[in-house]
Write a structure and sequence with these properties.
Pathway: Carbohydrate degradation; glycolysis; pyruvate from D-glyceraldehyde 3-phosphate: step 2/5. Pfam families: PGK. One of its GO terms (molecular function) is ADP binding. This protein has 400 residues and is of the alpha/beta class. It is built from 17 helices and 17 strands. The structure holds 3-phosphoglyceric acid.
Length: 400
């Protein structure tokens, strides 16, 4: 983007593909980290006199307009953060978008409606995607890719559109890639990886890859129970991906052979049912040993002994990557495990990268100062796929 700015953008229509896919609760943004992350790029372009057209997806609407997934709230928040009016177009490539863009003066910003209200955005058909990209291209003279959270998606606005316009990487993408490189090249050891989240199936690729790179792999979240079951323990009514057990057993064996330490919970916070995340009423959970989970109880967080164990495994690490919460942190009864890992990372002197929408949101909503962490990535799937060594369509298109 510095190259673009030095060439001059005054009066040019610059399409910024951002990732404003923020969590919403009844229409209110609960974590605006992704909006704040794109501010440097939007501000620099606006200050240089560009007519800035910001575009993003939000959630997973079905290729047609759906008010539940409108970007209006994100556009309003962007305006507040910029402390400037931001125009909002109620369609993406239709008359409203053209009117909004035509109405921009140099230095002004418009947000167009959710890209995924159009089937062409996410289509697997190259022609359909290409046609939608052509319609987006009509809105701009230059493309800036800055939606790091979506670079792993081969979508029209991420992959096809940059091919149709002069294209540049924004500040966020440059920063994210710079940081993630530190986790793939010349990593400082010990290198510990903390993986949480619900499904082990989402993490298979990264575990497979990290078995060659990391010194310690620390497991939390719903994934735990597939690991415990793979070791022969009963897991009550906890979340379980039975079909992943053979893969997990393979990883445990490979870790053993390679001298990679897999660290699993020794105790688990359990309850008879999944908590109501809205009411947040007290649920009176109990704590049990991980190898003695009672029938009918489900694990919803790592226990206090496990929190201490994980902290000890992070204390002397030189590099840490963390993706995925340790438990159902959205409910106060099950937030302690995630809080203890976040605290352990703050206490350690390791270079720390927190990756993933959920873990980043957890860090912020649990009241931690996000600036105290080495880097909080705006990309969940994107940072995982980067670490897996995959080619990311949105980065490949910019490098072209
Ligand atoms: C994310 O939240 O990881 C990104 O915004 C991508 O969203 P997606 O998984 O719906 O493509």
């Amino acid at each position: 983007i510095d190259e673009l700015l030095s060439e001059g953008v005054s009066g040019k229509r610059v399409f910024v593909r951002a990732d404003l896919n923020v969590p919403l609760a009844e229409g209110t943004i609960t974590d605006d980290g992704r909006i704040r992350a794109v501010l440097p790029t939007v501000k620099a372009l606006a200050e240089a006199g560009a007519k800035v057209v910001v575009a993003s997806h939000l959630g997973r609407p079905k290729g047609a307009p759906d008010p539940a997934f409108s970007l209006l709230a994100a556009a309003e928040r962007l305006g507040e953060l910029l402390d400037a009016p931001v125009a909002f177009a109620q369609d993406t490539v239709g008359p409203a978008a053209h009117d909004a863009v035509d109405g921009l003066q140099p230095g002004q910003v418009a947000v167009i409606e959710n890209l995924r209200f159009n089937a062409g955005e996410t289509s697997k058909d190259d022609t359909e995607r290409g046609e939608f990209a052509q319609r987006l291209a009509a809105l701009a003279d230059v493309y800036v890719g800055d939606g790091f959270g979506a670079v792993h998606r081969k979508h029209a606005s991420v992959f096809d559109l940059p091919k149709l316009l002069p294209h540049y990487a924004g500040y966020l993408i440059a920063t994210e890639v710079g940081v993630l490189k530190k986790l793939t090249e010349d990593v400082k050891r010990p290198y510990a990886v903390v993986l949480g989240g619900a499904k082990v199936s989402d993490k298979l690729g990264v575990i497979d890859h990290l078995l060659e790179k990391a010194d310690r792999i620390i497991i939390g979240g719903g994934m735990v129970f597939t690991f415990l079951k793979a070791q022969g323990y009963e897991v009550g009514s906890s979340m379980l991906q039975e079909d992943q057990i053979p893969a997990v057993q393979g990883y445990l064996k490979r870790a053993d052979e390679r001298g990679v330490e897999f660290v699993l919970p020794v105790d688990v916070v359990v309850s008879g049912s999944f908590p109501d995340l809205k009411a947040k009423a007290a649920t009176h959970p109990g704590t049990v040993a991980a190898d003695a989970m009672p029938a009918g109880q489900m694990g919803l967080d790592i226990g206090p002994e496990t929190g201490a164990l994980y902290a000890s495994k992070l204390a002397d690490a030189a590099t840490v990557f963390w993706n995925g919460p340790m438990g159902v942190f959205e409910h106060p009864d099950y937030a302690e495990g995630t809080r203890s890992v976040a605290q352990a990372l703050l206490d350690s002197s390791a270079f720390t990268v927190v990756g993933g929408g959920d873990s980043a949101a957890a860090v912020r909503t649990l009241g931690f100062d996000e600036n105290a962490f080495g880097h909080i990535s705006t990309g969940g799937g994107a940072s995982l796929e980067y670490l897996e060594g995959k080619t990311l369509p949105g980065l490949a298109a910019l490098e072209d």
